[in-house]
Structures are given as structure tokens and as C-alpha cells.
Predict the 3D structure of the following.
Amino acid sequence: MTRRYSKEEILAKAQKIAEHMSESEQVSFYKQAEAKISANRKVQVLVDQIKKYQKESVNLQHFGKTEAYHRNEALIDHLQAELDAIPVVQEFKQSLEDVNDFLQLITKLVSSRVADAKESPEDE
């Protein structure tokens, strides 16, 4: 006979899995990289500048200031390239990619198990 789990039991198991995942090497590395990003003044200044110019771009585009909009977008691209060249940012992006890959793998495993369970005949 196939064991059926209640919604509460599944959510409790999911919570335990989430706790284990948060202790994984990938997530730990991500948290460290995020802390380094937050503590890096140069990174924060560049991020703030990019946000400021992005807001300006929205306004310029809204008011049809095409030439000023393109100059602003070029400045944003330059600032973004400068930001992306900082090693701690590269480390953060890599850790984010690793965590995303890890979560995608978990999602595929769960999806696969659910699909397998749907396809297998139930015991009566």
C-alpha cells in the first residue's frame, strides 16, 4: 500500500530540506560573497550610481529625450563594466550561478520524483 502524506507533513519535510540546503557548500559560499559585496564601499558606490542613472534613463525615455537617454545608457554600461571587473563582484556572480544551478538540480529531482510517482500504478 502506498503511503500518502498530508500537506503539513510535506511542508515539514520541505522545511528540513531547506535547512539542509542553507547549510550546503554552495549557499555558504554565496552568503560569504554577499557579505563581501555588502562590505565593499566601491561596489556600493557603483551600484548606487547605476541605480541613479537607471532612474534618470526612465525619465529621459518617458519625456522622449532620445539623445540624452542614449548617453545615459552608455554611462550605465560603463559603470556596469567597471562593477563587473571587480573580483568580489565576479566571485558573487559565480556563487549566485552555483546556487542557481544547485536549486535547479533540486527542482529537477523533485519534479522527476513527482512524475515517476504519477506514472507508477498505485497499490490498492
Summary: The chain is about 85% helix and 0% strand. Helices lie at 7-22, 25-39, 41-62, 66-84, 87-119. The radius of gyration is 23 Å. The chain has a mean pLDDT of 92.
